[in-house]
């Protein structure tokens, strides 16, 4: 083998080993320009706390529609669930060790009740998943090779179609989020969404009506925060009934904290889209709406506090993340103190006054989905949000020396 090929192989090995040495960062997926073929990559946090460079195309045999979630199994191991969707068929699920190399999944499955995955959460030994198409929640025993462990099928208002939108664990229950709609595109009519409380064996223990077309449910401080767009998305306008609501998981009492039509900002023209929290009590809110021709999403991240949010304040503008594309969400990595944003066609990161932009060139394709690896959104009881995925065995000083050579232009400060 030539010296050049030897060095190339060595450099590639170093990038893959970096995923095990450095902090977890995020896993992400991309698709090609035809949206038929995809791949999985990672953005790793360096020992100095800097995100990147991206390590693209670690797994390359994906289809064109996929999503990523993190959870903990029965032994407390941090896992990544990659779900691939094909219309009319159960998803193909690959489960990976979050601290591994992502070359070989720990588990491959097709679960009949999971169609178009929209969320995963763990409670005790069980993993719970929900899908958009079938409006079901399915349970699997992570300590028994993911054997089936019950299911729940949502039944809602007569005359509406039902869709699973998310799932979150709170205390000794899981809470599944569903929307209800009828009509034809682009004239969908939405009913109020539902947050359904489920026992570990997936028996319904109550439900509460939330905003129309709910997008997100997050747990923080023992409370569930639900973000709803207020109806069908509009090109050139926003929904006045888009809301952020807080639900007490014990009593199912609900409070509306923010309503888009009542936000006292003169230039406000946004639906509320997502929310995430820091351990210190800071709150980030993603809001946005599409231009009239749908070519651009005017998006802003606002920063407030728990006290401010409870008082009806969206806070102040933290960052303008506007751009083209259709993937918009935020997650806070409490291990590395970085705010991650799915920003349409790009993945962005913010921390310590700096920002980083990972575009299609850096990511190895058109950005599609991501998940924070070492701070799962739905930790198991007693877990503070996930541990770091840094491991010993490869010289960190060698990585620091290699990274500028391997990926000098992989990401751009913005």
Q: How does this model look, in words?
A:
The protein folds into two domains: 1-153 and 362-405, no CATH class; 154-320, Glycosyl hydrolase domain, family 43 (Tachylectin-2, Chain A, 5 Propeller), CATH 2.115.10.20. Helix content is 10%, strand content 49%. The protein has four helices and 29 strands. The protein has helices at 3-21, 306-310, 360-363, 396-407, and strands spanning 23-31, 38-45, 51-62, 66-72, 78-84, 92-97, 107-110, 117-123, 126-131, 136-141, 147-153, 161-170, 173-182, 189-198, 204-212, 214-220, 223-228, 243-247, 254-259, 271-277, 282-290, 297-305, 316-320, 328-333, 338-343, 346-351, 354-358, 366-372, 412-413. It has a five-stranded antiparallel sheet. The two termini are 40 Å apart.
What key attributes describe this structure?
single chain; 414 residues; Tachylectin-2, Chain A; 2 domains; five-stranded antiparallel sheet; four-stranded antiparallel sheet; 10% helix; 49% strand; disordered N terminus
Write the layout of secondary structure elements.
Layout: H1 3-21, E1 23-31, E2 38-45, E3 51-62, E4 66-72, E5 78-84, E6 92-97, E7 107-110, E8 117-123, E9 126-131, E10 136-141, E11 147-153, E12 161-170, E13 173-182, E14 189-198, E15 204-212, E16 214-220, E17 223-228, E18 243-247, E19 254-259, E20 271-277, E21 282-290, E22 297-305, H2 306-310, E23 316-320, E24 328-333, E25 338-343, E26 346-351, E27 354-358, H3 360-363, E28 366-372, H4 396-407, E29 412-413
Antiparallel strand pairs: 1-2, 1-28, 2-3, 4-5, 5-6, 6-7, 8-9, 9-10, 10-11, 12-13, 13-14, 14-15, 16-17, 17-18, 18-19, 20-21, 21-22, 22-23, 24-25, 25-26, 26-27, 27-29
Helix pairs in contact: 1-4
């Amino acid at each position: 083998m030539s010296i050049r090929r030897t060095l190339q192989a060595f450099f590639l090995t170093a990038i893959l080993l970096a995923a095990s040495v450095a902090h977890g960062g995020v896993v992400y997926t991309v698709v090609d320009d035809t949206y038929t073929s995809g791949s999985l990559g990672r953005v790793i946090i360096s020992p100095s706390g800097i995100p990147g460079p991206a390590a693209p195309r670690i797994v390359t045999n994906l289809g064109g529609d996929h999503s990523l979630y993190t959870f903990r199994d029965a032994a407390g191991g941090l896992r990544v669930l990659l779900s691939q969707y094909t219309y009319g068929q159960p998803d193909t699920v690959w489960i990976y060790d979050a601290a591994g190399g992502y070359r070989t999944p720990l588990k491959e499955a097709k679960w009949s009740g999971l169609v178009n995955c929209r969320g995963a959460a763990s409670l005790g030994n069980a993993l719970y998943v929900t899908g958009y198409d079938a409006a079901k929640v399915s349970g699997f025993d992570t300590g028994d090779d993911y054997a089936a462990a019950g299911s729940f099928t949502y039944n809602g208002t007569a005359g509406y179609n039902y869709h699973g939108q998310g799932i979150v664990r709170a205390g000794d229950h899981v809470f599944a989020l569903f929307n209800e709609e009828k009509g034809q595109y682009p004239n969908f009519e939405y009913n109020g969404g539902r947050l359904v409380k489920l026992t570990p064996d997936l028996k319904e223990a109550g439900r509460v009506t939330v905003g129309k077309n709910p997008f997100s449910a997050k747990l923080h401080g023992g409370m569930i925060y639900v973000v709803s767009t207020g109806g069908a998305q509009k090109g050139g306008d926003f929904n006045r009934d888009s809301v952020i609501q807080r639900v007490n998981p014990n009593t199912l009492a609900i409070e509306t904290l923010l309503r888009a039509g009542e936000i006292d900002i003169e230039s406000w023209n946004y639906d509320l889209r997502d929310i995430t929290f820091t351990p210190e009590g800071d709150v980030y809110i993603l809001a946005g709406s599409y231009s009239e021709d749908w070519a651009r999403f005017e998006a802003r991240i606002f920063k407030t506090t728990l006290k401010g949010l409870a008082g009806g304040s969206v806070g102040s503008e933290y960052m303008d993340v506007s751009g083209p594309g259709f993937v918009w969400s935020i997650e806070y990595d409490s291990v590395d103190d970085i705010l991650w944003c799915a920003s349409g066609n790009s993945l962005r990161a913010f921390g310590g006054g700096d920002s980083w932009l990972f575009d299609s060139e850096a990511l190895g394709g058109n950005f599609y989905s991501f998940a924070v690896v070492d701070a799962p959104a739905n930790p198991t009881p007693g877990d503070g949000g996930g541990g770091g995925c840094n491991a010993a065995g490869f010289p960190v000083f060698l990585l620091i020396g290699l990274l500028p050579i391997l990926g000098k232009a992989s990401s751009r400060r913005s």
